[in-house]
Amino acid sequence: MKIVMAIIKPFKLEEVRNALTSIGIEGLTVTEVKGYGRQKGHTEIYRGAEYAVNFLPKLKIEVAVPADRADAAVDAIVGAAKTGQIGDGKIFVVDLVKAVRIRTGEADAAAL
């Protein structure tokens, strides 16, 4: 099992969700986060004053998938979240040691 974590631009959430659903991956967790990568933020002008925005708003999506579906999930996210502009985000894939569905007690792959 794997956890696919993606940091994406907020306006791409629905496209990513639809892409994952279309390949049969259901259930994801979304968290509002702030951060920066290579772009190191940007400057904005508000009421005539320029100020630096160091941490940009992003969304973090987490999806638990069977190991053989991780590449498909990554491809779906990349296809849906890519704008070709700086700040499109990143995807991380990490091993998932154990999963348990609280309601039924199902474990591991059955819990996904």
TrEMBL record:
<keyword id="KW-0535">Nitrogen fixation</keyword>
<dbReference type="Pfam" id="PF00543">
    <property type="entry name" value="P-II"/>
</dbReference>
<keyword id="KW-0547">Nucleotide-binding</keyword>
<comment type="similarity">
    <text>Belongs to the P(II) protein family.</text>
</comment>
<keyword id="KW-0804">Transcription</keyword>
<dbReference type="GO" id="GO:0006808">
    <property type="term" value="P:regulation of nitrogen utilization"/>
</dbReference>
<dbReference type="InterPro" id="IPR002187">
    <property type="entry name" value="N-reg_PII"/>
</dbReference>
<feature type="modified residue" description="O-UMP-tyrosine">
    <location>
        <position position="51"/>
    </location>
</feature>
<keyword id="KW-0805">Transcription regulation</keyword>
<comment type="function">
    <text>In nitrogen-limiting conditions, when the ratio of Gln to 2-ketoglutarate decreases, P-II is uridylylated to P-II-UMP. P-II-UMP allows the deadenylation of glutamine synthetase (GS), thus activating the enzyme. Conversely, in nitrogen excess P-II is deuridylated and promotes the adenylation of GS. P-II indirectly controls the transcription of the GS gene (glnA). P-II prevents NR-II-catalyzed conversion of NR-I to NR-I-phosphate, the transcriptional activator of glnA. When P-II is uridylylated to P-II-UMP, these events are reversed.</text>
</comment>
<dbReference type="InterPro" id="IPR015867">
    <property type="entry name" value="N-reg_PII/ATP_PRibTrfase_C"/>
</dbReference>
<dbReference type="GO" id="GO:0005524">
    <property type="term" value="F:ATP binding"/>
</dbReference>
<comment type="subunit">
    <text>Homotrimer.</text>
</comment>
<keyword id="KW-0597">Phosphoprotein</keyword>
<dbReference type="InterPro" id="IPR011322">
    <property type="entry name" value="N-reg_PII-like_a/b"/>
</dbReference>
<dbReference type="InterPro" id="IPR017918">
    <property type="entry name" value="N-reg_PII_CS"/>
</dbReference>
<dbReference type="InterPro" id="IPR002332">
    <property type="entry name" value="N-reg_PII_urydylation_site"/>
</dbReference>
<dbReference type="GO" id="GO:0030234">
    <property type="term" value="F:enzyme regulator activity"/>
</dbReference>
<dbReference type="GO" id="GO:0005829">
    <property type="term" value="C:cytosol"/>
</dbReference>
<protein>
    <recommendedName>
        <fullName>Nitrogen regulatory protein P-II</fullName>
    </recommendedName>
</protein>
